[in-house]
Input
Amino acid sequence: MTSDIRIILVAVLAGIALGGLYLRLLWASVRLLPLRRGAAMFLALALARATLVISALAGALFLNLPPIGIAAALAGFIAIRLVATRMADPSAGVVPWK
Output
């Protein structure tokens, strides 16, 4: 039981870390778009983001991570994405008064 909780906690933290790196790469690629070779840099960073996700999944499979661990990492990834979205636009998700 304790090892399951530890696996879930580590997987959530890993998902948060990978999500943060993914979002940092996405932010950098969007910021480079207006530059002279922005489209090429955007594609290069898109390849880097795809490589990050595929290698994270391959690493999880290589380490024989149980499905609950992969789900916990995905939950961490989604959590950091939601936090970043709220930080970028604080009015997102707020229902205006009629």
